[in-house]
Amino acid sequence: MTQWQEQNKPRQPENPRRVIGGFKFKRKDGIENLPWTADPLFRATLTTATSDAVEEGHSYALTGQTVTLLASPGKIISSVQGRSSRPYQLEIAFVTWTPEEWDQIIAALCTEAVFAAKFLVGELPPAVGPLIASLGIRTPLVPMKPGAKTNSDPILKCSCGAAQPCKHVVAMMHILAERLEEEPLLLFQLRGMPIARVLERIHEKRTLSTRGENQAHPVPPAASDQALVTPIENLLHDFWRPGRRLHDLETRAIATHTPHALLRRLGASPLGGRFPLVGLFATIYDTARTRGIALRDSESSESPSKPNGD
Question: Average pLDDT over the chain, rounded to whole?
Answer without folding.
Answer: 84
